[in-house]
Design a protein that fits this description.
This protein has a 7-stranded mixed β-sheet, with helices on both faces. It has 226 residues and is α/β, with parallel strands linked by helices. Helix content is 42%, strand content 20%. The longest helix is centred in the N-terminal third of the chain and has 17 residues. It is globular and about 40 Å long. Helix 4 links the parallel strand 1 and strand 2. The protein has 9 helices and 7 strands.
């Protein structure tokens, strides 16, 4: 991976503070062993910094201080690890079902020396829900359509907690299509936030869904499986 643009040093420090060297080390993992072991596509190696690391880290502005975060379908640790580096007081668990990805995540976390947990499993599994429900925030990136994602993520949230789904250009279409389903699953009206203006171009697109107090978590879980 090429060195980050020196002109962006102030920008990068604003995002990561004293943990900027760790963020750059994580980017190196993505661009090397992450590519070699199939977690990141080979064409992504030269652009992991802005396209992946910064793209996820800027979402930190939507996370409350000291939040308990569950990162669903974490894959290569996105967005969970960049958020952990940008938010040192957060408590983060990465939920990932594939053993080879879990192994890589644990190796990278040990090398970085950050307090992030890794859970092998799926968000819709009862054992995962029992261990990690009551989260303040549940994150995801390019995991599933919004309605299905809500069925997996909302049961993990405390009432009033937020699902933050990093999406692409089709986010508005997903919101229009799936709002009714999300409401039935116990979520509020989805809204779109743009994070990182002036830091990355284009900014990250995040669909935010709050879990409504008293939402039917069991029903949400069943619908998510369906």
């Amino acid at each position: 991976m090429p060195d980050p643009d020196p002109a962006g040093a102030d920008r990068d420090t604003t995002v990561f503070g004293e943990r900027l060297p760790l963020a750059r080390r994580y980017a190196e993992h993505l661009a090397t062993s992450g590519v070699e072991r199939g977690l990141v596509g080979p064409r992504e190696a030269d652009r992991v910094w802005e396209r992946h690391v910064l793209n996820c880290a800027v979402v930190a502005v939507l996370v409350p201080d000291g939040a308990r975060i569950v990162d669903v379908g974490s894959g290569a640790g996105l967005p969970g690890i960049p958020l952990a580096l940008a938010l040192p007081d957060a408590h983060i668990v990465l939920v990932e079902p594939l053993a080879r990805r879990v192994e890589w995540l644990r190796e990278v976390i040990a090398d970085l020396g950050v307090a992030v947990e890794v859970e092998r499993g799926r968000a819709e599994e009862d054992v995962v829900r029992r261990r990690w429900e009551g989260a303040d925030v549940v994150t995801s990136r390019a995991v599933a359509p919004l309605a299905r994602l809500a069925g997996w993520c909302l049961p993990l949230l405390r009432p009033g907690g937020s699902m933050l789904a990093i999406k692409g250009a089709g986010a508005a279409d997903e919101v229009e299509r799936d709002t009714a389903a999300v409401r039935r699953l116990g979520g509020g009206v989805p809204r779109i936030e743009r994070c990182g203006s002036g830091i990355i171009d284009p900014p990250s697109t995040v669909v935010v869904v709050e879990r409504v107090a008293g939402a039917p978590a069991r029903a949400a879980r069943r619908r998510g499986r369906a």
